[in-house]
Design goal:
27% helix, 3 helices, Nucleoside Triphosphate Pyrophosphohydrolase
Length: 142
């Protein structure tokens, strides 16, 4: 039987010189993802997402965008156990130009939509990213 795990994080974007960019973090060779991590204690999912953005990207000035929360799940093996993880992603708009990479990651990149879509390595986060981009274009900008 699989152990259940829950994580939360955020798809972070910024608008610079009429170009929208999304932040991707490299966790393992060839694996690009969004800031995310496990829920601690009695945290709400939004609280976890906020903490993870600060811890993993070092971004202090940002806001979560109301009305968007999507999830994806996957199964993996760790220490001889099967883990079923559900990841909840929010959208965050960065107002802080500085990013400070955590020790959990090896690199970071700000990418436009097409570049980010082609860089994200897993199907689950890629699909949520498509939905987040559409939400920003259709709901946040209008």
């Amino acid at each position: 039987m699989a152990v259940e795990a829950v994580s939360a994080g955020a798809i972070i974007y910024r608008d610079t010189r009429d170009v929208r960019q999304y932040l991707l973090l490299k966790s393992r060779p060839g694996d690009w993802e969004f800031p995310k991590g496990g829920v601690e204690g009695d945290e709400e999912l939004q609280q976890t997402a906020i903490r993870e953005v600060k811890e993993e990207a070092g971004i202090e000035q940002f806001r979560l965008i109301d009305g968007f929360r999507k999830e994806y799940d996957y199964v993996f093996q760790a220490n001889g156990r099967t883990i079923h993880k559900t990841v909840h992603l929010f959208i965050a708009k960065a107002h802080d130009p500085d990013v400070e990479l955590s020790r959990e990651h090896h690199d970071l990149q700000w990418r436009d939509y097409e570049e980010a879509l082609n860089t994200i390595t897993q199907d689950g986060p890629r699909e949520v990213f498509r939905e987040a981009h559409d939400y920003i274009v259709n709901e946040v900008e209008n």
